[in-house]
Amino acid sequence: MAQVPTEQMAQVVEAVGGPLVYKKIPVAKPGPDEVLVHIKYSGVCHTDLHAMMGDWPIAPKMPLVGGHEGAGVVVARGALVTDADVRLGDHVGVKWLNGSCLACAYCQAADEPLCGAAALSGYTVDGSFQQYCVAKAAHVARIPRECSLEEVAPILCAGITVYKGLKESGAKPGQSVVVAGAGGGLGSLACQYARAMGLRVVGVDTGPEKRALVEGYGCDFVDFAASEDLVADVRARTPGGLGAHAALLVAVQEKPFQQATQYVRSRGVVVCIGLPADAHFKAPVFDTVLRMIQVRGSYVGNRLDSAEAIEFYRQGLIKVPFKTVGLSELPAVYDLMKAGKITGRYVLDTSR
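Now predict its structure.
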C-alpha cells in the first residue's frame, strides 16, 4: 500500500451558511473499529447543500467536511479490524450512515439507520469531500472490483435510498409507480431501479433534457410546468386511469408532497424520501381514509439494502447518469443545484 500522507485537500464549511473553503487539513487516523478510506470519487447530494445551509432541525457539526457518497480504497485499519471484516486494498463506499451502535433494538432489528447513536457522514462526522475519510468498518459498503468507483459513487446514497423506498412501497412487478423529481440524481436512479424490479413508471419533472432522460429508461413522463392538471395527467398514464399503486417523492420542493395522495389509486402508498427545507406533508383526511391511502417515510437503507442496491448496479441493470468535475469545483455544483439545473448526478474527482 502507498504511504498515507499527513495532510490532504478538502472542501470545508467553517460556519453554517458557508462558504466552502478548499484547503489543506490533517488526515484523520482510524479508531479501533474504523478504517481509513482513500476517497477517489464522491457523489454530490442535495443533502450536502442542506447541511451547509443548516436547513434541517438537526444541527450539523461545524466546521464540517460534507459528502456521503464516497468510493475509494481502504488504506489503514484500526486495531480491532481484521481481514474477516475489511482488508487493506478493498474497494469500499462511505455512506450516509457512517456508523451505529450495533446493539440497540433498532440495530438488532436491521434498522440501524434509526439508531439513536448513528453517525452521519458529512453531517455529524466529516464525510467524503476530502481525499481520506474515516468510517466504521462494519458499515462501509463493499464494492466489487469490477465496478467503476467513479460511476458507483452515487449508488452509495441516491441508489440505496430509492431502492429502499421502492421496497417500502410494497409495489409488485407489473404495478405502477410515480417518481416525483424523476430527472434528478435520486429520481433518475429510482426510475431505473423501478424498471429493473418490473414496475411501470410515470416520471414527473420538467424540461426537455429531463424528459429525454426519463423516457430513455422506458418510462412515461409528465412535465409539471406544462401540465394544466397534473393529477389528471398522471392518472391518465396509469392502467385504467385508476392512479398509481405507489408514489416515490424525491423532489426538493413542497408542492409534489401535497399532490401525491390524489394521483395514487385507492390503497395506494405514498413514500416520502426527499427533505425540502421547512416543508409539510398535507392530505385531505376524508379522502385519505375512504380510499385507504398509506403515507410512509423512507430513510436510507440498511447494510443489506446497500449490498442489494450495489448488486443491481454490478449486474448492469443501473446506469448512473453523471458528470465528473474536480473536488475544487464543488461550489459551482452547489450553484447549479440551487438553480435546479442538474440532470442526474455530479461526481467529484478528489485528485483535482
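The mean pLDDT is 94.
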